[in-house]
Structures are given as structure tokens and as C-alpha cells.
Write a structure and sequence with these properties.
The chain is mainly beta and about 525 residues long. Helix content is about 0%, strand content about 35%. Strand 8 and strand 9 form a beta hairpin.
Length: about 525
């Protein structure tokens, strides 16, 4: 289709080198090829929009972030119909090389530094009403569908079927060439379970989590009830928090215990966790076991940190000194999302992520956009979270904080831009998601959660249309849709809560399986 762009769904991680080939045939002079990032608006056509980054080759020109140039010196030459055009992309060196019929034709050595994720191979057609034909080989067929005589060349790992031998250390673009994930079984660190309430009168043991939860987050699916959070650092006795409310813990015991394979609800009827015949979902994070004292900051904190999975629970008491204070978070690198709740007073939940403007934060219990002067100008470091002088995070009270950072193949904190189209943006995570939570930051909009256990996720399809809201008591809805795919998620809705045109959204995603080992539904 003319004036179209097709992006690979395989994005190139740091520390890698990749090779691919294509043969342009029909209207070959309208074909373009290069690399782009995940911005929905960017394309590799000449003069394409520049909301993302990209390098595209076509005719004798090169397009860099939407600016067309004709290289001087060693020039890029035009390919002809039937030529075999190869590309070698070195991620760390920021170079992409173009080969024509096995000979190096041109090297571009200044691939723009990406601000919206890794690059992927992308092909374009800028022929107006005249469509170009591009036959691509990522290492599956060196005959290009019968156009050529297959040559059978492989990469240095013995993988692929290329017409020409790939340059040294450049690999076929496939999951077999990805590094083994640090976390092979994400369910060892995060897992979702579903259960039905029994109406109380006796305790109810919910099993199948696979570990003892450090953080247990329960939400009614068929009844309008608050999101109920319990964690192992504060303990279970009357300590439940409501993500949709400013309320402090009310002292009523709703969770009797956090167990080795799940949790047990208390023996009294409480709608948050155990109404008769109501259906519930529980999201569970593994922490680091018993909390330990952390003296890294100006405030000594109690921390349970799962450094492997990039998650920690931090309990602290602020001295209320009218200055910014620091607490140690216990992780091995700086958090990318921090949720803080005052335990003694009715203040909002404060949420920080680096996508927000300086000193701004979001409120977990509200649909508000980012608010000013709520967070310290000093962003979290590899050991410390800096707390602004405010009662939300740093008054004379007790507090709890939940800290997250991305872990390759397991979790991702990031952003995307909506397009108000049912064919929405694809968001690359590097894994098949088990859980996503997103929030608009450029305007008002609800927080929204999807997971891999609730319909339609349970029907062995990609579609998820069962949404729940951290800031609302609403029961499960189906007005928003997205697909969980092998290496990310794709928006399938025009709804403003997660896909308004031009709006920026933050997200926290957790894996069902790493991309390297993901299977299609």
C-alpha cells in the first residue's frame, strides 16, 4: 500500500548487532528501509513525521529524524529492482550499514539517541498511488519466496538462512539470539489469582500464588468495592489500605494471614475481600522476606527488597523537620515508580515516575493529571528516595512506600502516546505481559489495570477487555480493550483512559513470560 510504513515487532536491545536483507521489485524506487523507534507517529518515508526517531535509506538519500539529506563523500547509492540490499545495525555503536549485492555501500555512524525505546527494522513505501513491493528476509528464506536461488548462509550462532553471509557478530533477528532472561519464570515474583467469596463465617485460604505475598492487592470484580492492599512489612492486623481512598488503615482485620502459597481471608464478612458469591482478583508481588533496617537515608527505614525483581516495600516514620528527607529503598538501582501513602492521616496516595515534570506527582486515588509542588526536585537515586517537605510523604507520621524499577524481560515502567484509534499504539515491553497499569499524565483520566487471568484473557486470545480501576470502586468493566502479545501490548480502544490522541500515558507492566520464551495464544 502506497504511503505506508511497516515496523517489525522485534525491537533491538542494547549490546546487540543485527542483520537483515530485502529485495525491492515492483516500483522499487519508491521503497525505503531503515530503523525507527516505537513512536506511533514516526515513519521512514521521506520527510516523515518526527515525533520519534529513525534513519531511513531510499534512492541516494538518507532521512534522519524526518530530515532528508544527500550524503557527500562516500555516497549512498540507489538500489535497482532485484538487488539484494542488506542492513547491519550495531546498537551500541549507533551505526547502520547498507550493503548492495554483498558489497558495503554506505555507513551511517550517528544513529540518533532514542528517547522513546529501542529501534526496530522498518520498511516504507512513499509512492503515492503507486505501491512498491519489498521482499524481506530476516533469516528465514534466502530465496525471498522463490525470487533468488537460496544460499543458506548463517549468522555466527549458526542460525538463519541468508543470501549473503552476515557481517561479523551480526545476528539473525529472532528470539533464539536474545540473551537468556534474568528471570526465567516471572510467576516466581508476580502472580494473579482469581477466587469467589464465601460470605465469611470461616476463614478462606486462597492458594495458587506460588510464594508468600509481600504485597497483596485485592479488587472485587462483580461488586463495587474498594481496592484493598495488604503488605508483609506492616503486617496484616487491621492494616489494609484502599488505593481509591485517602483513608488511613481502619484497624479491621480482613486478611487473616499471608501464607506460603497465597493468603487467607478473615472469618468475618467484609465486602472488600470476601462477599458471598462475589468474584475477586488478587495481584501478588514477592518482596524480600522479613524487613531489615536501612540506614542509607536521613530517616532509618524498614525495607523488604526483592532486588532480583526490582520491587521493594519501605516503611518509615518522618520526624517532620520541615525539610526534605531521604529514605533508603533497598534496591540495586534507582526506582522508576514510587507509591507513597500516609498511614496516620487522610492524605492522598502520591505516585512519582520520571516521566513527570520536576516536583510533580500523580495521585493513585484520583483521576487528576500531574500536580505541582508535591515531590522533591531531587529524583530517586540508586539507594535513596528523596521526600519533599509535605504531609503527603514527609510529615510527622508513619508511611509506606512501594518502589519499582524495570527488569529486562520481567517488568517495565515506561510511557506511550495515544492515538484515539481502535488500531492503537503498540507498546514494546520485551515480554508477554501478565499485568499492566496505566495512567494519563497529560490530562485527567482514570488509572486502569488489565491482567492475564480475567476474561477475555482466559479464552486463549490476545484480547483483554476486563478493566479495573485503582482509583475507583467500580466493578469490572469492558469499555477499554488491549491485546497482550509476545513482546508488549497494543491498544484496541478509542477510550480516553488509555488511548486519547496525543496524550501521554505512564505504565507499569509485569511479565507472564519473557519474549525469548513467549508462545502465541
Amino acid at each position: 500500500m502506497a504511503y505506508s510504513t511497516t515496523r517489525s515487532t522485534f525491537f533491538c536491545p542494547a549490546g546487540t548487532k543485527w542483520y537483515w536483507e530485502f529485495v525491492p521489485t515492483t516500483n522499487y524506487n519508491y521503497a525505503s528501509c531503515g530503523i525507527t523507534t516505537n513512536s506511533a507517529a514516526w515513519d521512514v518515508n521521506p520527510g516523515g513525521t518526527t515525533d520519534g526517531h529513525g534513519v531511513a535509506f531510499y534512492d541516494v538519500e538518507v532521512d534522519i529524524d524526518g530530515t532528508r539529506t544527500t550524503p557527500s563523500g562516500p555516497a549512498s547509492t540507489a538500489w535497482a529492482s532485484g538487488d539484494i540490499v542488506g542492513f547491519a545495525y550495531d546498537v551500541d555503536a549507533n551505526t547502520i550499514k547498507k550493503y548492495i549485492n554483498g558489497s558495503l555501500d554506505y555507513t551511517y555512524s550517528s544513529v540518533p539517541v532514542s528517547t522513546d525505546g529501542p529501534y526496530s527494522p522498518t520498511f516504507g513505501d512513499f509512492g503515492g498511488s503507486v505501491a512498491a513491493t519489498i521482499n524481506v528476509n530476516f533469516g528465514a528464506d534466502s530465496s525471498f519466496g522463490g525470487l533468488k536461488t537460496a544460499q543458506g548462509n548463517q549468522d555466527s550462532n549458526g542460525i538463519g538462512d541468508f543470501y549473503y553471509e552476515p557481517p561479523a557478530d551480526h545476528l539473525a533477528l529472532c528470539s533464539s539470539n536474545l540473551a537468556s532472561p534474568e528471570i526465567a519464570l516471572p510467576t516466581d515474583h508476580f502472580n494473579t489469582v482469581l477466587y469467589a467469596g464465601n460470605g465469611g463465617g470461616s476463614t478462606d485460604a486462597i492458594t495458587g500464588v506460588g510464594f508468600s505475598p509481600g504485597l497483596n492487592w485485592i479488587k472485587g470484580r462483580t461488586n463495587a468495592t474498594s481496592n484493598y492492599l495488604t503488605d508483609s512489612v506492616r503486617g496484616i492486623a487491621g492494616s489494609g489500605l484502599l488505593s481509591d481512598s485517602t483513608a488511613a488503615p481502619d484497624g479491621i482485620e480482613r486478611i487473616a494471614s499471608l501464607d506460603s502459597d497465597g493468603f487467607t481471608t478473615a472469618d468475618t464478612l467484609y465486602s472488600y475481600v470476601n462477599t458471598s458469591s462475589a468474584n475477586y482478583v488478587a495481584w501478588n508481588w514477592k518482596a524480600g522476606g522479613a524487613a531489615v533496617s536501612n540506614t542509607d537515608g536521613s530517616i532509618t527505614s524498614s525495607v523488604s527488597a526483592n532486588t532480583t525483581a526490582g520491587f521493594s516495600i519501605v516503611s518509615y516514620t518522618s520526624p517532620g523537620t520541615d525539610v526534605d528527607e531521604t529514605v533508603g529503598h533497598g534496591l540495586s538501582q534507582k526506582p522508576e515508580m514510587v507509591l507513597v501513602k500516609n498511614l496516620d492521616s487522610t492524605f492522598n496516595w502520591d505516585v512519582w515516575t520520571p516521566a513527570l515534570a520536576s516536583e510533580k506527582d500523580l495521585i493513585l486515588n484520583s483521576d487528576d493529571d500531574e500536580l505541582s509542588s508535591r515531590w522533591s526536585a531531587t529524583v530517586p537515586s540508586a539507594s535513596l528516595v528523596t521526600l519533599r517537605d509535605s504531609y503527603e510523604v514527609n510529615g510527622t507520621d508513619d508511611y509506606i512506600a512501594y518502589c519499582f524499577h524495570s527488569v529486562e524481560g520481567y517488568s517495565k515502567v515506561g510511557t506511550y502516546v495515544g492515538n484515539s484509534d481502535a488500531d492503537g499504539p503498540f507498546v514494546y515491553t520485551g515480554f508477554h505481559p501478565a499485568f499492566t497499569m496505566c495512567k494519563k499524565i497529560s490530562g485527567t483520566g482514570n488509572w486502569i489495570i488489565f491482567d492475564n487471568k480475567r476474561p477475555d484473557a482466559g479464552t486463549n486470545t490476545n484480547v483483554n477487555d476486563s478493566s479495573l480501576y485503582p482509583n475507583l470502586t467500580e466493578y469490572e468493566g469492558d469499555s477499554n480493550h488491549n491485546d497482550f502479545v509476545s513482546n508488549g501490548f497494543k491498544l484496541r480502544t478509542t477510550g480516553g483512559d488509555n488511548n486519547e490522541s496525543g496524550s501521554t500515558y505512564i505504565y507499569l507492566a509485569l511479565a507472564e513470560s519473557p519474549f525469548k520464551t513467549s508462545n502465541a495464544r
